[in-house]
Amino acid sequence: MTIKVRFFARFRELFGGDIVTAVSPGTSFMGLVKEIAEKNPEGYEAIFDQNGAFREFVILMKNGKRIDCARATEIPVADGDEIAVFPPVAGG
Amino acid sequence: MIAIQTEDVDIGQLINAAKGRGVGAIVVFDGIVRDDDICEMELEAYEEVALKELEKIAAEAQAAHHLFSVDIVHRIGRLAVGENILVIVVSAGHRKEAYEGSRAIIEAIKAGVPIWKKELTKDGSRWVPGDHAHGNPHGQHS
Question: Is B29 near chain A, with CB under 8 Å?
Answer without folding.
Answer: no
